[in-house]
Amino acid sequence: MVKPRKGTKVTKRFHISVLLALAVLALSLGSAPAQGPVYSVWLVRNSVFKDVPAGAFMPDRAYVPNSTDPMNNQVFFQLPVNVGVIKGGKDIILYDTGWKQQDYLKMTNSVNWVALPELLTRLGIQAGDVTKIVIGHGHWDHAGQLSDFPNAVLYVQKAELEGIEWALTYPNPRISAVNTSQGGCARTPACGYPPLTLQEIYGKVLSGKAVIVDGTMEIAPGVIIHPAYRAHTAGSQLLVVPTTIGKLVFGSDAYSSWEGIRDWMIANPQQTDTVQQFLAYEKCYKITGGYQNCVAAHEPLSYSDKYPITKNFWIGPNDSRLAEVALAPGERTRKP
Amino acid sequence: MVISQRGPSQVKLLVVALIIILTVLGAVCTSLLREAAMAGRTAAADARSSLVPPRPALTPPEEAYAHALWAIHGDVKSAAVTLTFSGLRYKLKEVQVRAFETGVQAASKSFSDAEERVRALAPPASLTQVHTQYLDAVHLFQQSAAEMLKVSEDGRDDHLLVAQPLSQEASEKLLRVGNMIWPGEYLPN
What we know:
The complex is a heterodimer.
Chain A: H1 6-31, E1 40-53, H2 54-57, E2 76-88, E3 91-95, E4 110-111, H3 116-121, E5 132-134, E6 153-157, H4 158-168, H5 173-176, H6 195-206, E7 210-213, E8 217-220, E9 223-227, E10 237-243, E11 246-250, H7 258-263, H8 274-288, E12 294-295, E13 313-315, E14 321-326
Parallel strand pairs in A: 3-5, 5-6, 6-7, 11-12
Antiparallel strand pairs in A: 1-2, 1-4, 1-14, 2-3, 8-9, 9-10, 10-11, 13-14
Chain B: H1 2-5, H2 8-50, H3 60-91, H4 97-119, H5 128-154, H6 158-181
Helix pairs in contact in B: 3-4, 3-5, 3-6, 4-5, 5-6
């Protein structure tokens, strides 16, 4: 019998160990939800737009009297105004800033409004701590309250600014109209941008606290802005955020309804190119592998089990809602 | 008796089953009570908001004034946005000072025209304050434009910083007027 040499035995063991280590490494890499840093994410409800006709929000879900089909048996939707709060590294990032109720801006049929700085304190964050604000688009109910965050750098898409200016200077007054009727402005490309909202954006530019984004941009490690041109307005933009539950994609009004993304139905189509909205939906499917992690701005099912990423919620001041979507390792829960 | 006919193991099984059923029932009741409490709180908050008295309708003279001012309001808002974008594009170095100046001057002229048209309106007594407020807004925009035009004289961007709060205040005044006479001016977007 040939006795194996000691060196051969050690080499074999070494090879087996290396193979095992590689296998373990491969498995662990395969199951990791995201590479690189991960962020903590909360969603907060700035207010609710009450009794919006179902068909005005989602044409496919227009109310049909006496219908028993859940698609068409709702007269109204109660639409939350959702704002994303993202924390990681040295950054506190807001995705959208909702709108600011004033004595002169009440918004008929809106309830449960709470100032965004007050909601943030419930998460242990002060307004002055916010470092970056990404607005999904420039409409008044998504880009309000900017001046309440003096240290934050605003990220707005170049195409959004160009789109507003184009609409307002279009030679046909029917198209450039900022007012369509005293009942409100919803359909022209110039609607939704009151002078005050634009002044606040301009204020950020003047104070050197604005970045005009032209396309895609990584604003923090792994946190990436993707343009979604005309998916709601000319320069709509999405935000991808890596978390422990995988990547989230915030969509503002390009993702007005999460059910719309799930069921491939357009939503909030006021100035929307519906083909581009579908392509924005597809982007979320491609980035996240499905629809569960697409974060919608006005999903009526928000803060319930029916919209799973928002199910871990609690009730805040003035009957507002806050949801803990994902926590980075070592981050403490804010849920009371 | 029926129980006496069962063996001790069957009785034990029955007791365990009873405990499980009671536990499940307890959990269901607790969650139902929690849901009811939450719904109650939401309903209470909604009820509070619905207690706000509805806004009284405008009188015919007020309606007439609101309609007349509305026609001017569109031009004022367009000029306000032109003013904003002139400053914004200049600051972003997307336009030269001449183009900036042309934009601000155009906005300034629109404000002057608007002022003349607003002055020609005769508000009902109940809307005198609204009328004054609207004129104040137009004046603030005019002041802002005048301050911005100084940039083309001495090339100092500081004038934009002085001008911006004036435009912002004017924009707020427009919303104040809108809140009084055009309550549906802005819809959820």
